[in-house]
Amino acid sequence: MAFFIGRDREARRAYGFDEVAIVPGNTTINPDEVEITTHIGPITMQIPFLASAMDGVVDVKFAVAMGKLGGIGVLNLDGIQTRYENPEEILKTIAEASPEQATSLVQDIYKEPIKEKLVGQRVKEIKKGGILTAVSCIPANATKFGKIAQDAGADMFVVQGTVTTARHIATAYEAIDFKKFCNDMKIPVIIGNVVGYDAALELMDTGCAGLLVGVGPGAACTSRGVLGIGVPQVTATIDCAAARDFFFKKTGKYVAIITDGGMNSGGDICKAFASGADSVMVGSAFARTKEAPGRGFHWGMATPHVNLPRGTRVKVGVTGTLEEILFGPARLDDGTQNLVGALRTCMGTVGAKNIKEMQFAELIIAPDIKSEGKIFQRAQKIGMCK
């Protein structure tokens, strides 16, 4: 439904995770008996979780740990991992810096040029762990890094910018031809980020295997504040999922929708799937793990528009191991742990046997759902009222 926000100026109402709720189903299922595997092109994931391509979230060790638990950690090829032979020393320096020093320090660190030999080296290091290997870069580096990563054994390649479209107009440089790139690559390509139906439909026509959905919802992303652009994640996911379903009916090819960012709890993740997601890409939750290279800090990937890291360092605090965040047992009451358990329980409650059925769960507009009746939680600052 559209509204007028001024004379002759129409605007569509959009919704985020805090404004909707999932309605329980008429039939319930034992959470242990629901199927949560998902597919991105020919790749099968045992759990529908990807870790964001952020320097403070994914390094080689984290990617291997994530892979062994059934998910995929996406390594950022534009960041510290490919600029320094020993990125652990750099990460430690950033983590120990004061808030006043952090931003300028990160800016200086990113002035070091990317070393192409490290692109293939990092892929091989992850592959040694015997898990699915995924890497990411900005559109400007995709043609060059894509071949290197593929030859080194990568299983999936992600091309990610602040906003990515199939048609990019530029005279100062040559824009990537996504259709040619996807056709030349022998491994599945994921493209992002996108939030609209038409833009998603055009990107699907390039031959990609998946789309990242989300502009500006991430904890370390400043796009919404600096540029004023973005669409709340529930509406963005629903719109892109509608494009996926139309494209599938038209062509017979299924393009995975991956909600990227803005999910702070298991409830948010469940709502992403109820909005139509096939999988989710998460940053903050995994930045809190003991395995994360940032050890409780994270910052954004480089963007194609700015020669500096996206966002400043964000402190999130270490709250547990990667296994605890994904599978529990939860030691916190705020929904940030046991994310897989939360998804399974929600699916069981709505009667969804698999991810596809979860995408048809009933949603209602409920902006007060998290705080309704929580007077004692608010007073004691516990649970969702911290």
Notable features of this structure?
386 residues, alpha/beta, TIM Barrel, 8-stranded parallel barrel, two-stranded antiparallel sheet, 15 helices, 16% strand, globular
Question: What does this protein look like?
Answer:
The chain has 386 residues and is of the alpha/beta class. It has a single domain (14-385), classed as TIM Barrel (Alpha-Beta Barrel). The protein is 35% helix and 16% strand. It has 15 helices and 16 strands. It has an eight-stranded parallel β-barrel with strand order 6-7-8-9-10-11-12-13, surrounded by five helices. Strands 1-2 form a two-stranded antiparallel sheet. Helix 4 crosses helix 5, helix 7 (197-204) crosses helix 9 (233-251) and helix 10 (266-274) packs across helix 13 (339-350). It starts with a strand and ends in a 6-residue tail after the last helix.
